[in-house]
Amino acid sequence: MPTNGLHQVLKIQFGLVNDTDRYLTAESFGFKVNASAPSLKRKQTWVLEPEPGRGAAVLLRSSHLGRYLSAEEDGRVACEAERPGRDCCFLVLPQPDGRWALQSEPHGRFFGGTEDQLSCFATAITPAELWTVHLAIHPQAHLLSVSRRRYAHLCPQEDEIAADSNTPWGVDALITLIFQNRQYCLKSCDSRFLRSDGHLVWEPEARACYTLEFKAGKLAFKDCDGRYLAPVGPAGTLRAGRNTRPGKDELFDLEESHPQVVLVAANHRYVSVRQGVNVSANQDEELDHETFLMQIDQETKKCSFYARTGGYWTLVTHGGIQATATQVSANTMFETEWRGRRVALKASNGRYVCMKKNGQLAAISDFVGEDEEFTLKLINRPILVLRGLDGFVCHRRGSNQLDTNRSVYDVFHLSFSDGAYQIRGRGGGFWHTGSHGSVCSDGERAEDFLFEFRERGRLAIRARSGKYLRGGASGLLRADADAPAGVALWEY
Q1: Taking phi first (over 0 means left), then psi (-120 to 50 degrees means alpha), and beta for anything else, what does residue 319 get?
Q2: What band does 2 get if pLDDT is binned at 50, 70 and 90?
Q3: Which one of 17, 125, 164, 400 is at 20 to 30 Å from 305 when CA atoms are compared?
């Protein structure tokens, strides 16, 4: 499979939470650091970088400032260094409970404290010098075994998660990381949790919770007995092995999960490449040959469609569409026009893609009619986590409304009907729009929402009023945005 940005390893960004549940924060004013923030936002996001030539030493860079945390010999700390020096080097010492102790590599003292009283002068580790790692990336991704170079996916028949897939294809390859009680659970696409013995369970019990460790930019998952998840046996079943230290077998990459979609034409048949390279609407069921990976270019906002058979849709002679391109080019890019419950695609020749009488697709139309409209269905998000500019979408405590500025997230269930989506939350209540644009989560009946995939990794959600869902200063989810941009776009 060509890369072309299809397999993007996610840069691991995270927050550090101290013993009083406050996040390490880098301030712009004076480049000071404190531990006062109750939630994970931009100022609380950090990146771990190796320091070449200094053994196990690492650097902590503020994503917000682009500067490095440093500790002087007298214990004073700041986040001012634009280039890392000797005082910026730290050792990460994982503790048995999964928390980190950060030790100044040149001075040997430990970093900790509360509020604005942070220092790196402690000679021993106490609770004040311990930090919990909270990932700041979107928690839905693909999990790649570093040693086997295979992707983890749900195996429903064997009732397990196995790392034996060459490509992260279909809904089964979606893994959702659930952060709770300072640990992480691995949730499969059918909403079950991976227990350390390899079994899938419906509740996040103690043996289904893991602490995270980083090694050379990779992730390891340690269970409550101090053993690490690894692919085991010929099938690559994920479960805790014997090792109490993470080696190559215990390391994983998280990769971006692009939307995978199916399209239905006006003849009510699925667009497919089952019968060859020609892209045609001629199938009655959706399987691998009817599923396409949809990738959106960040600059042009045009999209490409990649087939399981190994080729991108591309414009060929006389306007035909074939799944034969091995590289992204102008001819593989399509403009999307969102038309309510349907979508139209315009090819690089300036013409719309239509379904011909024999079912084959061709970019030969100057106007949009019934044959130029398709139903587009997202298939690899049966469970959904949404993040806006200010944070994640989560139920507001004691209310039927939804927050949009939280550092923790709720997982919502998605269903699809005739070009629209229905969103179900905690307790089984459906999202619905109320008076003055409010969005509530306790509906007895499903309300239709339209998804528009506007940017790479971001979508807009349109309510029945025609307005878009947005976050805002109030921190509440509302359906009152006129345009699908800014606070009306959501990572998914």
Answers
A1: left
A2: very low
A3: 164
